[in-house]
Amino acid sequence: MKKLLLTAFTVILFSAFLGGCGSQSEMKDGFYTAEMSEYSHGWKEYLCIMVKNDRIVYAEFNAKDPSGYIKAWDNTYMQNMKSVEGTYPNEYTRKYVAQLLEKQTPDEVETISGATHSGDNFLKLSAAVIEQAMKGDSAISIVTAEEE
């Protein structure tokens, strides 16, 4: 009986060890940031996430101008974009973040009509920060926009 218990314990321990070896696909706790390599129409988009227990628990998606001013704070830009596109940065950035927090993967984030360029960038930035989180690398990841 002791030998059977010892064997079972060894199998369980070995399985746990192998399971631990497979944990390379887990995100490491910490903050991870990715930003676009270039400014587009005066703004450079970025995404910062916080990972805790292999889950994205916080995210901030926005854009900044060369002085660091945040796009979602620009009321004139908001009014102009809302009347033309039906959405604006302070709205669509929160919607993209909410989708990422809910689904935990950029593969299931849907682009928002009127903000598809930012949506495409969000998907690229999301993939980059998740890759950084898998490695546990907190360096800022620079994402290059593909030429159209």
Question: What would you note in describing this structure?
Answer:
The chain is of the alpha+beta class. Strands 3-2-1-4 form a four-stranded mixed beta sheet. The longest helix has 20 residues. The chain is globular. It starts with a helix and ends in a 5-residue tail after the last strand. The N terminus is likely disordered.
Using only C-alpha atoms, the radius of gyration works out to: 21 Å
What's the helical proportion of residues? 40-55%
- The percent range for strand residues is 15-25%
Overall mean pLDDT stands at 86
Look at the helices and sheets and give the structural class. alpha+beta
Largest sheet: 4 strands, mixed
Give a summary of the structure in a few sentences.
The chain has helices spanning 2-21, 75-85, 89-103, 116-135; strands at residues 30-36, 44-52, 55-64, 141-143. With 148 residues, the chain is an alpha+beta fold. A 4-stranded mixed beta sheet has the order 3-2-1-4.
Key terms:
four-stranded mixed sheet, 4 helices, 4 strands, 45% helix, disordered N terminus
What's the topology here?
Layout: H1 2-21, E1 30-36, E2 44-52, E3 55-64, H2 75-85, H3 89-103, H4 116-135, E4 141-143
Parallel strand pairs: 1-4
Antiparallel strand pairs: 1-2, 2-3
